Amino acid sequence: MLKRFVSSCAQVAGIGLVFGVASCAGLQAQELTHHHFDSAAAMDGDVTQGWAKDQLSKSPRHREWVKVKNGNREVNSFIVYPEANKKATAVIVIHEIFGMSDWVQQLTDELAAAGYIAIAPDLLSGMGPNGGGTAELVATGNNNAVGQAIRALPPDQIATDLNAVADYVAKLPAANGKVAVGGFCWGGSQTFFFSTRRPSLKAAFVFYGSAPINNAQGEPYTVDKAALSKIGAPVYGFYAENDMRIDATIPPTTDAMKGLSKMYDPVTYAGAGHGFMRGGEPNAPPPTAPTAKGDEAGDKKASDDYEKALASYKANRKARDDAWARWKALLAKM
């Protein structure tokens, strides 16, 4: 079951965030408050998924790492080409708040399997030891390293990195010049942000991310209409029913985009939780049933927790499948 939010609700208040696309001063503060990133920052397991790595290893498609130039910077990017007999549209994949993960690489390959040139930049390139990125930050063993690096990313650097990647992929011999962008979690919000910086995008696909805002911390939640006015592409939203911190931003975003005559089509997937595109992957392992230990109360709690986790897993799986079908249908119309 899908629910489309077309409500004209009033402003959502009480979300203590800091943001400003115009001033850009508070972007990372918003993102780290607004997504699932707390004092226990990205662990190695958030970046490394054996099941995703195994799936990618079986792909017949050509894939490689390229260093995309952005002034004095080099953005390490993972690109996968479709097996096609005609030039293809390109899709930029913006990673989650955990940086460049195995799952992001698997998803990039899945987009190529659907017929698109897919490229995923590691936006933490140059932020790690010896000029490295996500992998080098994780290798330090500091569980806060990725979070600290994400927090330190200047919004203008994010925008210029993404523009450099878009310019690069659009000009590849196998590309038809059309570029879309899709991102997840933190990357979903960056997708919305990037659409304000590159009006020539053909489409922006926001997975459980929020629009730019311009209120100061402690002030009522206010969508940045000046930023949204610069959007030239349709924006499609993919949201989870059980994700109110993001869902609460949908009505004011809908109102703002409607007022600006901008295309914004949010769909919410019933029963799903934040991160359902990763959590619902067919090759992601389901929760493991508990083994009874002879403790009646403990066994009941373990059984209840398992049933809850299993229901969530199934809901995320359905949401992921439905979202994939919608995403591919939208891409095909570009």
Structural description of this entry:
With 334 residues, this protein is of the alpha/beta class. It has a single domain, classed as Rossmann fold. It contains 13 helices and nine strands. It has a nine-stranded mixed sheet with strand order 1-9-8-7-6-4-5-3-2, sandwiched between helices. Strand 2 and strand 3 form a beta hairpin. Helix 1 packs across helix 6 and helix 7 packs across helix 8. The chain is globular, with a radius of gyration of 20 Å. 47% of the residues are buried.
In short:
The protein has helices at 27-34, 44-47, 50-57, 102-113, 134-139, 145-152, 155-170, 186-197, 225-228, 244-247, 250-259, 276-279, 296-332, and strands at 2-4, 63-70, 73-80, 88-94, 117-121, 175-184, 203-207, 235-242, 264-273. It has 334 residues and is α/β, with parallel strands linked by helices. Helix 1 (27-34) crosses helix 6 (145-152) and helix 3 runs parallel beside helix 4 (102-113).
Counting DSSP E segments of at least 2 residues, the number of strands comes to 9
Secondary-structure element series? EHHHEEEHEHHHEHEHEHHEHH
Do you know the CATH topology? Answer: Rossmann fold
Strand order of the largest sheet: 1-9-8-7-6-4-5-3-2
What structural class is derived from the secondary structure elements?
Answer: alpha/beta
What is the radius of gyration?
A: 20 Å
Characterize the main sheet: 9 strands, mixed
CATH structural architecture: 3-Layer(aba) Sandwich
The share of residues in helices is 25-40%
Beta-strand content:
15-25%
